[in-house]
Write a structure and sequence with these properties.
2 copies of one chain form a homodimer. Chain A has 81 residues and is α+β, with helices and mostly antiparallel strands. Helices cover 35% and strands 40% of the residues of chain A. Chain A has a single domain (2-80), classed as Phosphoribosylformylglycinamidine synthase subunit PurS (Mth169, Chain: A, 2-Layer Sandwich), CATH 3.30.1280.10. The first copy, chain A, has helices spanning 18-29, 53-68; strands spanning 2-11, 35-49, 74-80. A 3-stranded antiparallel β-sheet of chain A has the order 2-1-3. The radius of gyration of chain A is 16 Å and the shape is elongated. Chains A and B meet through strand 1, helix 1, strand 2 and helix 2 of A and strand 1, helix 1, strand 2 and helix 2 of B.
Chain lengths: 81, 81
């Protein structure tokens, strides 16, 4: 069966996120003042052929560890939709 | 109150996603064969000061339209956590 799986990859909370800071500056320049913090990450949508949702999740976690996330600087979360 | 809001920005389904295709090639080279499609988008995590969740959502939608998403090539979804 084909499963839709989302892998969220975000910069570690301990690290600065210069892209997020730049976006926050941009929003302030546009007059949007209510935003206190911005962090920018990636969202990777996968279509996975697997026997069940659990296997699909395992395949996505393996892909995240091997390629999608750099665990020195990023953490990831996998969600089967 | 401070609300955590996630803005998901993905390439439109009608468009090719060359970054997604590259990631899929990379996964195949790593021996991960079960993945049928990959699309790569952005996930922007915002901390928004607002009176209620509904206002926080409106502020995030405004930010997405004005800066975070390019609606010619991308669609976005806002989720208050």
């Amino acid at each position: 069966m084909l499963y839709s799986v989302e892998v969220k990859v975000m910069p570690l909370k301990e690290l600065l996120d210069p892209q997020g800071k730049a976006v926050m500056g941009g929003l302030e320049n546009l007059g949007i003042q209510e935003i206190r913090d911005v962090r920018v990450g990636k969202l990777i949508a996968l279509q996975i052929e697997a026997a069940d949702a659990d296997s699909a999740k395992k395949i996505a976690e393996n892909a995240a560890k091997k390629l999608l996330a750099n665990q020195v600087m990023e953490f990831f979360e996998v969600r089967v939709l």
